[in-house]
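[Meeting: bench + compute handoff]

Bench side (C.D.) handed over the final construct sequence. Compute side (W.E.) agreed to return the predicted structure before the next meeting so the bench team could plan truncations. Sequence as handed over:
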Amino acid sequence: MFLVYQHTYKRQNMPVPQQRERSSTRMSLSQGEGGLFEINLDKQKLKTPGGKLFTVPNEALAIAVATEWDVQEDTLKFYTMHLTTLCNTALDNPTQRTKERIISAALKFLETDTICYRVEEPPGLVELQRNEWDPVMNWIEQRYNVVIGSSSSIMGPQIPEETKETFQQHLNSYNLWSLTGLEYVITQLKSLVLSFGLIDRHLSVEQAVVLSRLEEEYQIQRWGNVEWAHDYDMYELQARTAAGAMFVHMSSESTAVKRKILQD
């Protein structure tokens, strides 16, 4: 399971504030050793909570992180800065997780994947799951030439070893940074299938989030909800999921973005 960076540091008695007053006013990018990009706040280089120099592998990700800082107003709200948090996690790696451990954790989601578990009643939800989830399941099985299936058992379907091996090989093709982002998406959606659909651009962020909340949305339509709370939860999940997907793609990006950012 993806370990939320701030929580990990709290367990190690290293407090990470959720917000603080903003003191820096000017932001800029610079390229340092090994072609890595750094972010400068006024004349100071950004550091991770673990004290490392904050560096990212390409300009595209550097621009995205700098923009995330730049849109903050008088108070820095770190809980809204998902790209920064993901970079900190990849850089500090506070629990020293390897690619193998991240891949193993991601594969475990297959056993309890959101869209693999199907209800037997009520009929309306049964039909909704079939109509909305089956096309995605059919897509991923054809896309990766695997068998996953679904089950009404709380234990989930029996995933063939060949399927696990195929996904393991695919996940192993990602670098450690991309895996960090992908695991974050999987944790948000509680689904490896929906996450692959999103990263492969078969699903939009909005579609992936709605599909991950299908039962909840069904119950809301049937019984009603507290509108503002529902909307807030939905937008927050969309924001986290979108940030994770961006992080995956940008962490794999090797070409530089040729444009100037952050005017005086």
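W.E. noted at the follow-up: The first helix runs from residue 5 to 11. C.D. will use this when planning the next construct.
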